[in-house]
Write a structure and sequence with these properties.
The protein is an alpha+beta fold. It contains 18 helices and ten strands. A four-stranded antiparallel beta sheet has the order 1-4-2-3, with helices on one face. The chain has a four-stranded antiparallel beta sheet with strand order 5-10-7-8, with no helix packed on it. The longest helix has 31 residues. The protein is elongated, with a radius of gyration of 28 Å.
Length: 533
């Protein structure tokens, strides 16, 4: 029954995503509504302990992938603004919201500060979901600013939440020491483990299908666990790990992109559906007034004051600041932190879970729906998409593929200008590497001995599913230590690739020698391929 329920939920989530793309409603809001509907239909789930584990894992994946997907080259120009909003901005939002709850809504001071801390961070899942799904390319590098802010501000909110939870529990804590410990150890943990794992990637041979993605997942969980164990902020370490790894180029990066694209989507669905499922429709109605008032205060007062105040030294345009203020959506982190609070068994005078629920609803509904419209109204939409990419991005995300070849002394291309080279096929010389430097190829560029040429062209997907035969050459194999031209195979067969035991890929020529341990890949016209052992 549970598996059938999961199947139904995921199918409905796919439909909800399609509805979102057509209607303009944020998909995450629809996932949340699904949870409420299932709860109202009698699917009771009130195990907050299990929910906290799911929420924590979801947040880990979302934060890590937020860092992994951040283009630091493009975001570097707005890094100071992003970091200011992600640290001081969260602190200011939490304090302003807390003071409003205490002095205007007459909630206990520490409980007010706890509530303000829980909802203080902007949500990467919600912000990136809207920017990507609505194709909102923003002027003045605003998109990377928002993505880095929303991806890196959850650790600050988490630290503040833990501080006020400790104070409400009656523990005597030094706020400055806790914050310093969390931040410093989190930063060190993220960079140190990122460096170690990149070295492991270079050392280990992880060519088996799926193994590399499992390795990255292990790195992610290990970084969070080790950093938390020594008292650091595991979420901050994860974000830094994501940035560190994501901005390094390595083989199998395509696997990570597709793996985490799917995984983060599933856990976003799980987070918002879970919030709806844990809710009680009667308690939602009861929390509506206070949640709505807090959401409006944050939208119209707390967020704008924070953004305009902290960004004043950077001399940013008013329309840009207005849009940044509007983009402060609340979501996954607030949900996870609210569930954590419920599990601490602290007697609170407020129903913090359902208040956070209402705040998230109004934030997604009002801000999420208004953001695409406001982008154009404020003249912040940039029709010329100038996002910086890498060669590997296009190999990972599009049908464009890149291959490399070497120019040798005997090559017919050596010492020739590119304009004099006749390339009969639909390919382009995209890049030249010479003595460790990259050269942009022009018509009058000469090719030299030792150059590495990168060729670009449309990738091929075999929709027919024709088989390729991979043969491992053993010591006793009849092809062992033979040149390709001396191997007798049918006219309808071709050895198209050789992989050495070290993982090196060789495009075979007539004089290429197959050695024991090599893997030869054969293409054949017929499906009936036999291993010529």
């Amino acid at each position: 029954m549970n598996l059938l329920l999961i199947t139904v939920v995921l199918l409905l989530a796919i439909i909800a995503t399609k509805i979102s793309n057509r209607s303009g409603l944020p998909a995450l809001l629809l996932f949340l509504a699904m949870g409420v509907i299932f709860s109202a239909l009698g699917y009771d789930f009130n195990n907050f302990k299990v929910a906290e584990n799911i929420a924590s894992l979801s947040l880990m994946i979302i934060i890590f992938y937020g860092g992994f997907g951040s283009n630091w080259t493009m975001g570097r120009s707005t890094a100071r603004q992003s970091i200011s909003l992600a640290s001081l901005g969260v602190f200011a939002t939490a304090i302003l919201t807390g003071l409003f709850c205490h002095y205007i809504l007459k909630i206990d001071f520490l409980e007010s500060m706890l509530l303000g801390s829980v909802v203080a961070s902007t949500d990467y899942a919600a912000v990136s979901n809207i920017l990507v799904s609505k194709n909102l390319n923003l002027k003045y590098s605003t998109a990377p600013l928002l993505e880095i802010e929303s991806g890196s501000n959850d650790p600050t909110a988490y630290t503040m939440t833990m501080v006020f939870l400790s104070l409400l529990s009656g523990y005597s804590v030094s706020i400055s020491i806790i914050i310093l410990q969390q931040v410093v150890l989190g930063i060190i943990g993220g960079f140190l483990l990122g460096f170690i794992f990149i070295k492991l990637i270079e050392i280990l041979s992880l060519d088996e299908d799926g193994l590399f993605s499992v390795f990255i997942a292990t790195m992610m969980i290990g970084t969070y666990a080790l950093t938390s164990l020594v008292g650091g902020n595991g979420f901050l370490a994860l974000y830094i790990l994501g940035i560190y790894i994501g901005n390094h180029e390595f083989r199998r990066k395509r696997d990570v992109v597709f793996f985490y694209d799917g995984l983060s989507t599933i856990f976003q669905i799980a987070m918002f559906f879970l919030l709806g499922l844990l809710s009680d429709i009667h308690l939602i109605i009861k929390a509506l007034p206070i949640g709505f008032v807090i959401a409006i205060f944050m939208l119209l007062v707390a967020r704008p004051l924070t953004v305009f105040g902290l960004m004043a030294p950077f001399k940013m345009k008013k329309n840009q600041l207005t849009l940044i203020s509007l983009a402060g959506l609340r979501g996954a982190a607030a949900i996870a932190f609210a569930i954590m609070v419920v599990n601490r068994d602290i007697n609170l005078s407020i129903d913090i879970f359902h208040i956070v629920f209402v705040i998230c609803i109004f934030s997604l509904l009002i801000q999420g729906t208004a953001l695409p419209f406001a982008t154009k109204k404020l003249e912040m939409y940039d029709p010329d998409d100038t996002v910086l990419r890498t060669f590997n991005y296009y190999s990972d995300k599009t049908d464009l593929e890149f291959i490399k070849t070497h120019v040798s002394k005997t090559s017919p291309w050596v010492n020739k200008k590119i304009s004099d080279i006749e390339i009969a096929f639909n390919i382009i010389i995209a890049k030249i590497e010479r003595e460790g430097k990259s050269i942009v190829p022009r018509g009058d560029t000469y090719l030299r001995d030792g150059d590495v040429i990168v060729l670009g062209g449309e990738g091929y997907f075999d929709a027919t599913g024709e088989d390729l035969l991979e043969i491992k050459i053993s010591e006793t194999h009849k092809w062992a230590n033979k040149r390709v031209r001396d191997i007798h195979i049918g006219r309808d067969e071709l050895i198209i690739m050789v992989q050495t035991p070290s993982g090196e890929i060789i495009v075979p020529r007539g004089n290429t020698i197959l050695k024991p341990g090599d893997r030869a890949v054969i293409s054949k016209e017929s499906n009936e391929i036999e291993d010529p052992e």
